[in-house]
Amino acid sequence: MRPGAGIALGALGVLAFSMSLPATRVAVHTLDPWFVAFGRAVGAALLAWAYLRLTGAPRPTRDQWRRLSIVALGVVVGFPLFTSLALTTQTSAHGAVVVTVLPAMTAVFAVLRAGERPPPLFWLAGAAGLALVLAFLAASGSMRGSLAPADVFLLAAVVLCGLGYAEGGRLARELGGARTICWALLLSLPVTVPVTAVAALVHPPQGGVANWAGFGYLTVVSMFLGFFAWYAGLARGGIAKVGQIQLVQPVLTLIWSAVLLGEAVTPGALMVAGAVLACVVLIQRTRGGATHAPGGPSSADRPAPGGASSAGRDGAGHAGDVRVADEVS
Questions:
Q1: Where are the alpha helices (DSSP H) in 140-188?
Q2: CA–CA distance from 268 to each of 73, 132, 140, 245, 251 (Å)?
Q3: Half-sphere exposure of 111 (CA within 13 A, CB side)
Q4: Which of 56, 126, 153, 224 could form a disulfide with 86 if both were Cys (CB 3.0 to 4.6 A apart)?
Q5: Cβ atoms 97, 176 nearer than 8 A
Q6: How confident is the model at residue 6 (pLDDT cuts 50, 70, 90)?
C-alpha cells in the first residue's frame, strides 16, 4: 500500500470521470444510447489492444479472467448502458444526485469483495460528505419529483459500477491499473461489437461536432485513460478509502454541466465543495482504512506465482503498469 500515490491517482481518476455524465448527455442528444454505451467500449478496446501489444503484457490467469468478467460487467457494460439510457430523459445534474451514493457503494463492495475493514471514523466522515452533497443538491433544486425509470437506471448503474470499481481495484494489485481495464475491455468485445453493429444499423449514427466530441471523450478518457489512474489509485491507497474521493465528483459534474450545457450553478457549490474536501481529507487521515478482515490477506494481496508480491513488488505481468502508474503520480 502506498496511500500518497493512491490518493493522487484516485483524484486524477475522479477528475476524468466527473465529465462523463455531461459528455454522455451531449452524446445521446442525437446518437442512439445503445450505440454510445457499447460503441465507446469498442473504441476503447482498440486502444487497449494497442497498449497491451506495445507493453508485451502476458495473458491473465483463468481466475483473473473470471474476476475480469465482473469488472467488465460493472464498468464496461453496466454503468455506460444504464447511464446512457437514463440521460436520454434526465439531465446530467440530476444524474449527479444518484451518483452521489457511488462512494458508499464502492466501500460496501470493498468490504464484501476485497475484505477491507474501514474504522468507524471512516464511515462517519463518508456519511458526512454524502449528507453535505445531498443537502446541496436538494437546496439547489436538483432533487425533486418521484422515482422515474431514469432513476432506476441510474441506481442500477451505481450498483454495478461500485462492484466493478471494487473488483477492479482488487485485481489491479496483481495486474496493475492499466492492464486491468485493458483486459476487461477486450473480454467484453463479444458483447460490445455485435450490440454496437446492431445499434448502428437500426439507428445510423448522425450527430454534430459536439455530439461526436462527447462520444470521443467517453471513449478515450472515461472508458480508457481515466481507469489507468483510478484502478492504480484504488490498488495503492485502499479501495474503500480512495473510493471516497468520489464525494467531490457530483459537485465537479455540476460545474461541468454549467460549462458545457449552460445549467446554472449557485455560488454555494464552491462552499459545499470545500466542506466535502474537508471530509475527504478526514477520511484519508483515518487509520486502518484499508485493513483486511482477520484470517489473512485477501487473494489480491497474496504473493503471485513466481514469488512476487502483487501489492508491492514488480512481478510478471505487473511491472509495466507499476511504472506507468508511478509516472502518472
A1: 149-175, 177-187
A2: 37, 11, 9, 20, 10
A3: 12
A4: 153
A5: no
A6: confident
